[in-house]
């Protein structure tokens, strides 16, 4: 080989040796270093997802949103609960003087004392959206005026009053619009919770598999470091016997330094992957290591696009939420259409009044059914803004929002179609890729073993051995990458289909 090539290898060796002089832990006890602090108990994907669903911050926040939506529904339903009003008033009126000059008129200042109690019940009528109020009052009054015939005077009366919209805000649909919207909002909040569950499952799957891949990468790097260490020892021994050259030893030293560097980087990747998983499952202590992890056996088989899309169309949260929002916008449009009508309210009132009685509250109450007086009232109130410009504009806005939501739903359905097609193809592709990469890894291992045997027999060079070792490492990483990509593709398809919930037996709140 040329002198320039030897000098280049020497420079690389010195650079790597300097860089890793401060990393004694990377020297050849790699297996113990990688497993330090890892518990013996295996940490399965099911364990990770169960803990994430139980403790994830986003799910806890979304759970409060669902509860708030339910309380908003209770508020809307409470609008039809009867309302009870009661009041008691005592009043005293006394004039400063009496300037009357009529004969027989009392000369002392006029003084009037009264007590009045009222009890009423108001209820909103669901079928018509009217308001019915039943009230009763009981009063007592006394005065110092001598011309008053009944003193003290007790009075009692009952009244029924109906206010009924006839045009705008009339009917059951107007009455229940708020309740219907609140029910849909509960559905939307529940769908959003389901969407968050699917996202947490998918994110946890990916983080878990990333950790598996990071630890597998670390094991490959450890294996490579051990190979390079043994290779250096063999070359050093062979140089002493005159079989190997200084260049062979230098090549082995460069390979060992590079392996150490890659091992340290792999160790960092493992800890980073552990932290990301611990963050997702909301583990309070980032000092604890995650137990042994592993790829589960893929049992999904080759997906069928038609079946996958059908499931996704039925369960995908974003399209379901968009459909519920369309229902809300239809309610808004119907409300805006009614609000273009004038306000026309029927007001009807009927009351009965007992005969004034000086004998007390009980007597005046008992006399009401026997000798009542009565009063009634019937009227119409009409109101309409000139030109109804604001109401017409609100109706146009409601129409525009509904049309926009229809387009958004079409957009979501098209995007879902594309995403499902892509996810199905990804699973199909990675199934083939895993099979091919597994065979390639097996072939690279055999080629490396064959080349190592040739080197031992003096029929090959250290450079060729290192090259085949690199090929074996690349093949193993290619297989690992394909297995990781398969799990990611399957997780994405499960999220789109909504089947991850059934797969991991997740119980959604009702």
Quick structural overview:
With about 500 residues, this protein is of the alpha+beta class.
What does this structure look like?
This protein has 510 residues and is an alpha+beta fold. Helices cover 60% and strands 15% of the residues. The protein has 12 helices and 6 strands. The chain has a 6-stranded antiparallel sheet with strand order 1-2-3-4-5-6. α5 (172-240) runs antiparallel to α6 (246-280). The chain is elongated. The protein starts with a helix and ends in a 7-residue tail after the last helix.
Q: What's the SSE blueprint?
A:
Blueprint lengths: L2 H17 L10 H6 L9 H11 L1 H21 L5 E12 L16 E15 L4 E14 L9 E13 L6 H69 L5 H35 L24 H11 L1 H22 L4 E11 L7 H7 L5 E11 L5 H68 L5 H36 L2 H4 L7
Antiparallel strand pairs: 1-2, 2-3, 3-4, 4-5, 5-6
Helix pairs in contact: 1-6, 3-5, 4-5, 5-6, 5-8, 5-11, 7-10, 8-10, 10-11
Shape: elongated
Percent strand equals 5-15%
Query: Helical content, roughly?
Result: 55-70%
- The assigned structural class equals alpha+beta
Provide the succession of SSEs: HHHHEEEEHHHHEHEHHH
| Count of separate DSSP helical elements | 12
Q: How would a textbook summarize the main sheet?
A: 6 strands, antiparallel
Q: How are the strands of the biggest sheet laid out side by side?
A: 1-2-3-4-5-6
Low-pLDDT windows of residues: 1-33
What oligomeric state do the depicted chains represent? single chain
- Spatial separation of the terminal alpha carbons: 75 Å
What gyration radius follows from the Cα positions, in whole Å?
Answer: 43 Å
Question: What's the overall average pLDDT, rounded?
Answer: 83
Number of separate strands:
6
């Amino acid at each position: 080989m040329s002198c320039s090539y030897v000098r280049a290898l020497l420079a690389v060796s010195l650079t790597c040796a300097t860089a890793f002089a401060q990393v004694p832990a990377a020297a050849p006890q790699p297996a113990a270093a990688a497993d330090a602090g890892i518990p013996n108990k295996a940490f399965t994907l099911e364990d990770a997802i169960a803990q994430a669903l139980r403790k994830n911050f986003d799910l806890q926040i979304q759970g409060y949103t669902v509860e708030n939506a339910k309380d908003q529904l209770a508020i809307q339903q409470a609008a039809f609960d009867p309302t009870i009003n009661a009041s008691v008033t005592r009043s005293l009126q006394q004039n400063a003087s009496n300037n009357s000059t009529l004969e027989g008129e009392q000369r002392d200042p006029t003084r009037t004392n009264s007590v009045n109690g009222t009890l009423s019940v108001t209820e909103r009528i669901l079928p018509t959206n009217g308001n019915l109020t039943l009230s009763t009052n009981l009063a007592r009054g006394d005065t110092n005026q001598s011309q008053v015939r009944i003193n003290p005077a007790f009075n009692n009366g009952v009244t029924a009053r109906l206010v009924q919209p006839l045009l705008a805000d009339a009917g059951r649909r107007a009455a229940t619009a708020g309740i219907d919207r609140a029910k849909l909002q509960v559905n939307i909040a529940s769908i959003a919770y389901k969407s968050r569950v699917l996202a947490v499952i998918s994110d946890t799957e990916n983080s878990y598999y990333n950790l598996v891949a990071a630890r597998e990468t670390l094991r490959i790097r450890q294996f490579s470091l051990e190979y390079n260490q043994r290779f250096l020892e063999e070359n050093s021994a062979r140089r002493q016997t005159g079989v190997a050259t200084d260049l062979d030893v230098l090549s082995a030293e460069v390979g060992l330094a590079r392996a150490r560097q890659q091992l340290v980087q792999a160790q960092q990747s493992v800890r980073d992957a552990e932290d990301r998983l611990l963050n997702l499952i909301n583990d309070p202590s980032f000092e604890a290591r995650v137990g042994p992890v592993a790829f589960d056996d893929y049992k999904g088989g080759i997906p069928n696009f038609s079946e996958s899309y059908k499931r996704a169309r039925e369960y995908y949260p974003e399209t379901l939420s968009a459909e519920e929002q369309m229902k809300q916008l239809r309610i808004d449009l119907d409300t805006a259409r009614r609000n273009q009508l004038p306000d026309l309210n029927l007001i009807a009132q009927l009351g009965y009044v007992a005969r004034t009685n000086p004998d007390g509250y009980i007597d005046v109450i008992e006399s009401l059914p026997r000798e009542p007086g009565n009063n009634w009232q019937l009227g119409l109130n009409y109101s309409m803004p000139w030109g109804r410009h604001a109401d017409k504009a609100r109706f146009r806005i409601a129409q525009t929002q509904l049309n926009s939501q229809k387009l958004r739903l079409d957009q979501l359905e098209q995007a879902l179609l594309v995403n499902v097609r892509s996810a199905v193809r990804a699973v199909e592709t990675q199934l083939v890729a895993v099979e091919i990469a597994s065979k390639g890894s097996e072939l690279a291992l055999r080629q490396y073993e064959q080349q190592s045997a040739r080197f031992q027999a003096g029929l090959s060079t250290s450079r060729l051995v290192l090259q085949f070792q690199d090929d074996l490492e690349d093949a193993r990483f290619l297989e690992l990458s394909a297995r990781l990509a398969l799990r990611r593709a399957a997780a994405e398809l499960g999220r789109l289909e909504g089947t991850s919930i059934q797969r991991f037996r997740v119980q959604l709140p009702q």
